[in-house]
Specification:
single chain; 184 residues; mainly beta; two-stranded antiparallel ribbon; 2 helices; 10 strands
């Protein structure tokens, strides 16, 4: 019952993300991306302000348009989670890296083009932003410092285009480095 309850609270905030070449996809109700925003600027809002995550995302950088042109015919799919009611989405850098256009499909079927794409390839994290006149369903970020080896965890997502997947696992380690070990 605990897994079901947790899934019901979060699944509406899980989104599908499609990374597409510029001219290969026409989405419904998709607003245009802002072309002249400043690096790291989410219109003055910081969804991580006052949380333990405020410093985690300090290295995120906006993807310049010239770096967002994938090879002809390239594209991909992945998932993410809305982490703030104003449309901030946490996903992986590898899901959006090189995309000319990023389309986000909500659990209810609505589609939006990501207006802001901030990435950090070193941590494989990305934060996207979508906009609408109403609030989005969002998931609350937990505190990873409180997780211990042996704790149960759930992973919710839409991998490989499969909708509303839920799987369980166990924390097997903490404080591991990110990426391959250094050869120095």
């Amino acid at each position: 019952m605990a897994f079901r309850s947790a899934s019901e609270k979060v699944l509406d905030a899980v989104v599908a993300i499609e990374s597409r070449p510029a001219d290969s996809f026409v989405a419904k109700n998709v607003p245009k991306a802002r072309e002249h925003s400043k690096p790291g600027d989410f219109e003055g809002e910081n969804p991580f302000a006052g949380t333990p995550y405020e410093d985690v995302f300090q290295n995120l950088r906006r993807q310049p348009p010239q770096q967002r042109t994938p090879p002809r015919g390239a594209g991909g799919i992945g998932s993410g989670v809305i982490i703030h009611k104003t449309g901030f989405i946490l996903t992986n850098n590898h899901v959006v890296a090189g995309a000319a256009k990023v389309i986000v499909r909500l659990h209810d079927g609505r589609e939006f083009e990501a207006l802001d794409i901030l990435t950090d390839h070193k941590t494989d994290l990305a934060v996207l932003r979508i906009k609408d006149d109403s609030d989005f369903p969002s998931a609350k970020l937990g505190n990873s410092d409180k997780v211990e080896i042996g704790d149960w965890v759930l992973a919710l997502g839409q991998p490989f285009g499969l909708e509303s997947t839920v799987t369980a696992g166990i924390i097997s380690a903490k404080h591991r480095g990110i990426g391959p070990p250094s050869c120095e």
